[in-house]
Amino acid sequence: MDTFRTHPDFFPATERCARGLVGMYRGHRLLNRILNDRGRVVFGLFALYLDATPDENGVGLTVTRIATLCQETNVCSRGRAKAMVMLMRWAGYLDIGGETGPNRRQRPLVPTPRLLQEQINRWRQLCGALAMLHPPAEDVLARIEDPVFARTLVREIGSRFHAGVRLLHYAPQASVFAERDAGILIAMSLLISGAEGDAFPPEQPVPVPVAALARQFFVSRAHVLKLMREAEQEGLIARTPSPTGSVHLLEPLRSGMVAFFAAMFSVLADAGDAALVAAGEAPSFPASAGGQVFAPRDQTAHP
Q1: Cβ contacts of residue 154 below 8 Å, gap of 6+?
Q2: SS3 for the chain, per residue?
Q3: 111 or 57, greater pLDDT
Q4: How far apart are CA 235 and CA 231, in angstroms?
Q5: Helical packing angle, 38-52 and 78-90, nearest 10°
Q6: What φ, ψ does residue 49 adopt, rounded to 5°?
Q7: pLDDT tier at 101, thresholds 50, 70, 90
Q8: Which of 25, 67, 115, 198 lies at a CB distance of 3.0 to 4.6 Å from 81, suitable for a disulfide?
C-alpha cells in the first residue's frame, strides 16, 4: 500500500478510477439498486466466487452457501443474503442451474453472463487505473474477457475477502459513506468535484448538488442530506456559507478515501498477479508493487 501511495501517479490513478466508477453507475437504475453499496458489491463477488469454487460434492453457488459465507464474513445477515438472492434472480443476475450433488437433488444457482459482465466492467475501470501504478494490471486487463481467466481472478479476489481482507480496515473514516446506499459513490463524486486547478482530493470547497446526486444514484434527496449531516457530525466535512451549498472535505475524509483506494489497488494487484501466475503467465514484477494487505478475519471489524 505504501508503495502505491508514494507513486508519483497515485493521485492521477485514483482520480481516474473514481471518475470511471462514478460514470459506470451514473443513470443506471438497476445497478444502483442492486450492486452499488459495499454489501451488494461484495455479495455479487461472492456469488461468482462460490460458483467458481465448488464444495467437496461439486456444488457451487447455493442459497445456503452464500448465506453462510455472508454471515461468516459479516457482510450481511442470512436473511438479507436470501433476500438478495431473490432480488438478483428477479433482476437477471442469477439463474437456476441443473441438479448436482451426490444424489443429484441439489439445484445450484448460476451467475448469468450479465453478472459476470458487470464485474468485468468494474475490473476494467480498476485495472485501467491500476496499470498506471502496476504494469501487470495491463496483462490482467487484456485477459479478463477470457472466461477461464475471469474465474481464476474471481477465485483469487474472493479468497482474499473470505480470508478476512476488509478495505475499511485500512480506511475506517470511509465507513460512514460505505454503510449507506450509494454512499461510496457519493463520496467519490465529491472527490472529483474540485474546481480547475485544485488538488486531488480537493482542498477547496466542493458543491453538493443534492437533487442531482439523488437523481444520479437513484436515492432520495432526504437520503443524501442525511448522509451529509452524518458526515459533518463525524468531522468528515464542514459546510461553507454558500447559497448554492458546498462543503470542505476535511482531512479525515480525504486521507480515508486515499487509504481506501490504496487498499483496493493493493488487493487487486495481489490477486491479479496470482491469477496471472495460475494462468502460466508470470507478471512483469516478481511481487505486487503495493504489497499484501491481508488481515486475519476479525468478526468485529468492518466487513
Answers
A1: 45, 48, 49, 52, 119
A2: CHHHHCCCCHHHHHHHHHHHHHHHHCCCHHHHHHCCCHHHHHHHHHHHHHHHCCCCCCCCECHHHHHHHHHHCCCCCHHHHHHHHHHHHHCCCEEECCCECCCCCECCEEECHHHHHHHHHHHHHHHHHHCCCCCHHHHHHHHCCCHHHHHHHHHHHHHHHHHCCCHHHHCHHHHHHHCCCCHHHHHHHHHCCCCCCCCCCCCCCEECCHHHHHHHHCCCHHHHHHHHHHHHHCCCEEEECCCCCEEEECHHHHHHHHHHHHHHHHHHHHHHHHHHHHCCCCCCCCCCCCCCCCCCCCCCCCC
A3: 111
A4: 6
A5: 80
A6: -65, -45
A7: low
A8: 67
Owner of C-alpha cell 508470470: 282
What is d(CA 66, CA 48) in angstroms, rounded to the nearest whole number? 10
Sequence-distant (6+) residues with CB within 8 A of 5 are 258, 262
Residue-wise pLDDT tens digits, 216-268:
888 899 999 999 999 999 999 998 876 667 899 999 999 999 999 999 999 99
Confidence at 99, pLDDT banded by 50, 70, 90: low
The CA angle 143-145-151, to the nearest 5 degrees, is 85
Give the cell for residue 281. Answer: 503467465
Q: What are the residues facing 249 on neighbouring strands?
A: 237
